[in-house]
């Protein structure tokens, strides 16, 4: 059997793609009002208004029901375009209704600030687009400020990926409270200096505006020193549900710092100061509300202080210190491929048991990923952790199902009682 040459393989692949494009029913008749038609026109308009030195290439793809992508605007030969020039290349992905859902940008050199501003202006016109990927685009601190303003202006983007964009100023903290649900910062060379800024943003910002559910800090220079700032985030935040710390050079010391925030802990000086600041502000506002007798504002004030873990029922005084219940809202923790030994894994298992005893099966960690620790001792403890979490998840599902059945039964009984009461009333009226 002869092996086809590289050129023959390329021709056959292109022929198959061309045939697929001809016969697919996924592409509807093009309309000038479609997002993918308007996007390049709008972008060029904003680039010209900003006097940009060049115009980026834009490629549009349709996502089919089977998850495959079809290019819908340029010849097939352009799919092999490589970003070797000093130009920005943009890929937009639309659904069957031709609404843009995702935008991916590639740039081998620093993006011109004017062009980046034009890109953000263009994106604001598409309310259907929820995902933006600026991966390996050499963006800087100025771009982060532009992006922050854009995200706050119109909360449409919920997933942002900045993979491979190290920034000297470490200003990623600006993106924490911008309405995002997922923020991916892999390969950004984030150090403890950048983590300190992120932790302060979590600690000092109003929790009413917290929306971030997933934070990916994998493959950064976190080390053990940075773990204390990750712990600060997990101590004060009750919105985050998933955090990824793959390949962050963490050892047993840093792991112990991380795990400590999942169980009862004593507030440090900065956390006590934050608690007192919030309570003092609460008392000042309470006095003002009592004078004005504004009940709605009083309820709003009560809700605000009850949402913060350092000031609500989760915190308490004991033994001359202020303690707080551990984090019970984080569901997924990924600390794979770090320098951990069996002692760290044993600590994880003990913490899971203690967390479950404190909060029950329905709260706390349900997924802990520990790949890369492959010694026999580690494998044994990983197996125990997996069994424990599987049992916890099964019990949680059983409890949820039972509670749902009870609620349905109670609702049905209440409806039946109300119906019977109404029927009896009708009988009495007719009898009279």
What does this structure look like?
The protein has helices at 6-23, 35-49, 113-123, 141-153, 192-204, 223-236, 252-259, 269-292, 295-307, 342-359, 376-431, and strands at residues 57-63, 69-71, 89-94, 100-106, 131-134, 159-161, 182-184, 214-216, 242-244, 265-266, 315-318, 321-324, 332-334, 367-369. With 432 residues, it is an alpha/beta fold. The chain has a domain at 264-325. It has an eleven-stranded mixed β-sheet. The chain has a three-stranded antiparallel β-sheet with strand order 10-12-11, with no helix packed on it. Helix 2 runs antiparallel to helix 3 (113-123) and helix 10 (342-359) runs parallel beside helix 11 (376-431). The longest helix is centred in the last third of the chain and has 56 residues, at 376-431. The radius of gyration is 27 Å and the shape is globular. Mean pLDDT is 83; it is low at 7-27, 75-85 and 418-432.
Question: Could you write a compact summary of the structure shown?
Answer:
With 432 residues, the chain is α/β, with parallel strands linked by helices. The chain has helices at residues 6-23, 35-49, 113-123, 141-153, 192-204, 223-236, 252-259, 269-292, 295-307, 342-359, 376-431, and strands at residues 57-63, 69-71, 89-94, 100-106, 131-134, 159-161, 182-184, 214-216, 242-244, 265-266, 315-318, 321-324, 332-334, 367-369. The chain has eleven helices and 14 strands.
């Amino acid at each position: 059997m002869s092996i086809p040459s590289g050129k023959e393989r390329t021709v056959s692949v292109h022929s198959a793609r061309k045939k697929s494009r001809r016969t697919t029913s996924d592409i509807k008749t093009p309309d000038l009002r479609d997002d993918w038609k308007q996007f390049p026109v709008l972008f060029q308009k904003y680039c010209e208004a900003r006097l940009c030195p060049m115009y980026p290439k834009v490629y549009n793809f349709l996502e089919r029901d089977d998850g495959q992508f079809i290019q819908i605007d340029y010849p097939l030969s352009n799919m092999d375009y490589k970003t070797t020039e000093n130009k920005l290349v943009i890929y937009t992905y639309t659904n069957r209704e031709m609404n843009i859902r995702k935008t991916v940008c590639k740039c081998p050199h620093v993006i011109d600030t004017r062009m980046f501003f034009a890109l953000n202006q263009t994106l604001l016109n598409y309310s259907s687009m929820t995902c933006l990927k600026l991966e390996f685009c050499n963006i800087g601190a100025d771009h982060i400020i532009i992006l922050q303003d854009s995200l706050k202006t119109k909360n449409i983007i919920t997933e942002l990926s900045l993979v491979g964009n190290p920034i000297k100023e470490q200003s990623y903290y600006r993106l924490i409270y911008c309405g995002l649900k997922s923020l991916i910062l892999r390969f950004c060379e984030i150090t403890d200096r950048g983590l300190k800024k992120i932790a302060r943003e979590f600690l000092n910002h109003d929790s009413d505006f917290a929306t971030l559910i997933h934070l990916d800090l994998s493959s950064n220079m976190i080390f053990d020193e940075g773990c204390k700032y990750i712990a600060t985030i997990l101590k004060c935040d009750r919105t985050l549900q998933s955090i990824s710390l793959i390949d962050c050079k963490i050892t047993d010391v840093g792991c112990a710092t991380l795990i400590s925030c999942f169980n009862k802990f004593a507030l440090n000086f900065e956390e006590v100061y934050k608690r007192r600041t919030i309570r003092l502000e609460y008392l000042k506002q309470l006095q003002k509300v009592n004078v004005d007798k504004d009940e709605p504002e009083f309820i709003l004030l009560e809700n605000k202080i009850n949402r913060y873990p350092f000031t609500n029922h989760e915190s308490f005084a004991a033994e001359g210190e202020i303690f707080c219940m551990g984090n019970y809202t984080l569901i997924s923790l990924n600390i794979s491929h770090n320098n951990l030994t069996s002692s760290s894994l044993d600590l994880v298992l003990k913490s899971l048991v203690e967390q479950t005893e404190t909060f029950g099966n329905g709260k706390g960690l349900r997924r802990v990923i520990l790949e890369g620790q492959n010694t026999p001792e580690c494998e044994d403890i990983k197996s125990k952790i997996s069994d424990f979490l599987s049992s916890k998840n099964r019990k949680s599902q059983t409890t949820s199902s039972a509670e749902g059945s009870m609620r349905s039964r109670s609702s049905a009984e209440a409806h039946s009682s109300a119906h019977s009461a109404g029927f009896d009333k009708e009988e009495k009226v007719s009898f009279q």
